[in-house]
Amino acid sequence: LMEESQEILMIMIMMIIRVVTTPQRLDVLADMSKSEKVVPTSLAFVDIAGLVAGASKGEGLGNKFLANIRECDAIVHVVRCFEDANIVHVDGSVDPLRDIDTINLELILSDIEQIERTLQRAKKGKQSDQQKLLAGALERIFEALNSDKPARFLELDPDEELAVKSLGLLTKKPVIYAANVIDTDLSAGNEMVDKVRQFAGKEGAEVVIISAQVESELVDLDPDERKEFLDDLGVKEGESGLPALIRAAYKMLNLQTYYTTGPKETRAWTIKVGATAPQAAGEIHTDFEKGFIRAETIGYDDLVKCGSEREAKEKGLMRSEGKEYVVKDADVMLFRFNV
Predict the structure, then answer these.
(1) Fewer CB within 10 A of the end CB, N or C, for the chain?
(2) Residue 239: closest CA among 162, 187, 314
(3) Residue 297 region, left (φ>0) first, then alpha (ψ -120 to 50), else beta?
(4) What is the pTM of this model?
(5) Per residue in 286-306, pLDDT tens?
(6) What are the DSSP calls for 224-242, one per residue?
(7) Secondary structure class of 93 (helix, strand, coil)
(8) CA separation for the pair 62, 102 (Å, rounded)
(9) Residue 148 burial (10 A CB sphere; 0-12, 13-18, 19+)
């Protein structure tokens, strides 16, 4: 459940998680190309604080909360895993598994209500083949939900998946559990985090340890101060907290990053894992995809080792990739196209 500390975290995510690629990579490429501008890619996290028991019936900010997350691709469930007498839990005690159950139940109840409404509309009048397909899939999901089984655990065929996608069913969305701890537990977690991990393991979900307390303090520190602060906590920068959450989200959503760099701009781009070179080019502009000829490509690490694009070409590390090339994470690319 979202309490004061979790609200702080989610608000921070809205403000600072816009940069989701490794900033050091962008800086290195920008220095190498003497770029005038650096543009990071972003992953939007939506502040949805306010869910309580009864949210599916409008309690708290329930209806607004649920409407917001229907538009999202995944859910990050922030779970309180710390004791603090100054931050009173709405249920009077701290129990992460109870909190998870509470939210899961509200999501299930909300999906049940939505499916009931959709089925009522679908059964009116003569049904098309598509409506019959949708109704059949929803009836199976409805049965699962009534057994307290989230929709994401139900196996649907590709046509059924496509039919129900537009409904934005809450329990169909993949979940990351973010275990919110005090600063001293950030490096190794605690017994409550272990319970969350055991629960998530049964679902095949990932758990990331974060600390709203630590993140709020890191905001005002420069890079050297951040490193020193995290070292004191026994935490290696990037291995927990928001950076770890970003990586987990990228992995869950099947995303990766590639880069373009030149004198005018160094930029990071987000694409799906498995995207081809023309599809990656299309992220820049549709004309790039339509008129794609080839992509001059090199891995980030190889380019940095060479020190320059010219050196990379002389060593034969710069490749000319065609339409079938599947882009790799951290590729640096220059597209050739014809409109």
Answers:
(1) C
(2) 187
(3) beta
(4) 0.82
(5) 999 999 999 999 999 999 999
(6) HHHHHHHHHTT--TTSSHH
(7) coil
(8) 13
(9) exposed
